[in-house]
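Subject: O-methyltransferase domain-containing protein structure
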Amino acid sequence: MWWSASVGGWVFFVEEAVGLLWRLFAFRLWPEACGGSDCRRLCFVAVRWLWFFLRLWARACIAVFSALVAAFGGGCGCSGGATSAGIIAKAGPGAQLSPSQIASQLPADTLVRNPNASEMLDRMLRFLASHSILTCTVVDLPSDSRAVQVGDRRSYDSYGLAPVAKYFVSNQDGVSLAPQLCLIQDKVFNVPNYSTRYELKGAVLEGGIPFERVYGTHAFEYPGKDPRFNEVFNKAMINHTTLVLNKIFQSSYKGFERVQTLVDVGGGLGVTLNLITSKYPHIKGINFDLPHVIRHAPPYPGVEHVGGDMFKSVPKGDAIFMKWILHDWSDDHCVKLLKNCHKALPDNGKIIVVDGIIPVMPDSSSTTKVIFQLDLQMMTQHGGKERTQQEFLALATGAGFSGIRLECFACNMWVMEFYK
């Protein structure tokens, strides 16, 4: 589903990319190809209108994401139960609540500080209902009701969770996609005047990574300089990883059963290995990431935290796990990393890769839309990219591996094994 995409750079990309096309085609390429002032004028007007409508569409996407964060992410500072959607979910399956009922369960002084909180919630919730994220039912008031009315209205709106909303309220494991929304909408990715700040046009014309052109540092080094963003990023990754791994555990994949020592390269705070070793307690886990990341990793039974640089060396194990790592990097970086993994593995060792795979030809399926949106984010933030199956095979064989196997599909991601 498209809501699950990490598309922090997507909306600004639409605006800037179409603006760049306007400049290139309307002023340079199309006039020369078509010839004549009438054709030039027609090309100019057509692309200008295309830009205008896509800008409106992009702004509408921003509005949807902002409302989602407000209703489901709690401004990224609240627990799931403190959000509007969390309050509805706690009321039970099929529950419908009015904005005033929801507002009454917000922090105690909310209505004192803002008497209009209920009305503001109503306006946000009905917007989400119009996008089929919530349901809305009009409830008529009894004829003898003495309730305070707004004008002459004798009814009120009652809201419930639509099927898609289940992905944004905490499940039985306490995780959801809501933190991913917070990451997408974070100010780091949505700075004012981002169409120029992100330097997309400059990156296309001159090279470089847009994120680095703005912040002067790599996207993975930035969290070490911004504790607030580091917390937002880690929370999003923890929630996403938990959802994905639980889907893998429910699948037919048996690739962890014979592993004795598993190295999680780019494992963050160690949540991934904790989930795996809890499911397979015979596995010894080595959580490997940058020193500033490992510094904040909590202890887990059976998991050792190791800091280092994966482009220099990787700890030894009979299997290596990498989720959403290869897509962060260029082909050259990936081959260098995979060669280090090859050295760290025994003759019968393998890498378990969890990543998206793009189709050779674009189609209009939700899965394809998600992976191509993610591909744009990799281009603008990390200088990486999503890859086809053949491109993954080329990386593997280029690093000395014999081949790859596609094992299972979970949450729009493939579990692949690179074998020696």
